[in-house]
């Protein structure tokens, strides 16, 4: 599932990198670097948009009630599964990723 969810996020950040690196957005090239793009792609939104779209599709009136009830249930199930997987896998490995990229320092006793 990571192979399907993370590359579109990464492509979006890569395509927007020249714009987001401009000083007018208050970031600059140093703040919006390649390690930051990798972390943003790995972390994503934790499925907030995915779950909202799944809930809209599951609702009868959300898209005009044109979908078959079985399809609406499947869309909600798959969107909730993507959100759950993102939370379990991506969130639990984020600290390791940040350490590997050198963005987090170990606390010294």
Automatic annotation (TrEMBL):
TM stretches of this protein: 37-56, 76-98
Presence of keyword Membrane: yes
Key words, A-Z: Membrane, Transmembrane, Transmembrane helix
Official protein name in the record: Uncharacterized protein
UniProt lineage: Eukaryota, Metazoa, Ecdysozoa, Tardigrada, Eutardigrada
């Amino acid at each position: 599932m990571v192979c399907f969810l993370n590359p579109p996020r990464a492509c979006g950040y890569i395509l927007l990198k020249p714009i987001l690196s401009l000083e007018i957005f208050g970031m600059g090239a140093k703040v919006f670097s390649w390690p930051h793009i990798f972390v943003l792609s790995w972390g994503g939104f934790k499925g907030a948009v995915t779950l909202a779209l799944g809930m809209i599709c599951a609702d009868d009136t959300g898209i005009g009630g044109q979908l078959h009830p079985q399809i609406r249930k499947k869309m909600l199930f798959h969107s909730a599964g993507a959100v759950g997987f993102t939370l379990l896998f991506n969130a639990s490995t984020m600290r390791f990723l940040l350490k590997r990229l050198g963005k987090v320092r170990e606390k010294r006793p």
